[in-house]
Specification:
3 domains; Nucleotidyltransferase, domain 5; 354 residues
Length: 354
Amino acid sequence: MPNFLINTDIKLQNIIKDLKSSSVIGLDTEFIRESTYYPILALLQLSDENHTYCIDILALEDKEPIINLLKDKNIIKIIHSSKQDLEVLNNYYDCYPENIFDTQLADNFLNPQISISYSNLVKKHFNVFLKEGSWRTDWLKRPISNDKLEYAGNDVKYLIKLHEILKSELTKLERYDWFLEEQDLELKKSNVVTEPAMAWEKVNLPSKITETQINHLKILSKWREEKAIQNDMPKRWIFSDSELIKITLARSNKIMYILDNLKHQPNEEDISYILSVLELKYDEAPVEFKNFDASMYNKRVNMCHQTLEVVCDEYKVASSLIANKRDIDLFARGRKDIRFLQGWRFKIFGKLVQ
């Protein structure tokens, strides 16, 4: 399968017709995201059944051919671990790709090893050993060496064959619908492209948190996201998720100690704003923990773990795919908005522990 460098708009026009005539294409991106909020797209790799193409984004001006390709609902875009690729494509082309098949998500439903890497998936199915470590490469450096082009091309070379294998296996096990349901949930735009007001939803909350603290966390998460966007900087440079949790849970006599010991020291204006948010009061009680019954909690947790072990052994999938520790904790506390109480998870696990 030849690998071509596409570094002019004319070359892109020459290959786009072949790509548009394909029902499936492989897709991957190379980008840099070390000191910015938005990822900087450097290379776009595409493959059809006959060729692989490394498209030098820095050398092109016309975005329309790729936009039309990404928006074409009749073409399946096969991507491995697609969330970051979808984010960078949405940011650069201002469009969210249609009709995705994520090979990592697909494999999650076939094996107890969750979130397998692309190289390991290729090794498993084709006994081909690929180099890893693209994160150590400066993809913005030009010219692009032949070694880099070969490496990048390999990232899409096997995707179409993997799609055929994984879809066939999922269909045989009657899990293809599970996969589609999971992918629709995981890869919806709101789950990939962060809206500042919804940024708090991506923070891993502790099980013991009050409604007032959640409201503080929502405000500070939105502020952090907007500040990071405004300054085009990683939001962890303001404070990390774990630091955010510490701030929102801190007692009033400990908050200044926490703020003074953040990895990236905030300025006086930021400290003043954070303190003003933490002073806000809300009437909501921590309803999640009203009438907490420790005995019932422990009974539910034990039942979940015992049932989960049996279910995972039967279906040969990772336990964390079905129910993670937080899912079980919230379920044991009486919450109903739990992943395993709906969809495919409910069919094989949730209904057994209700």
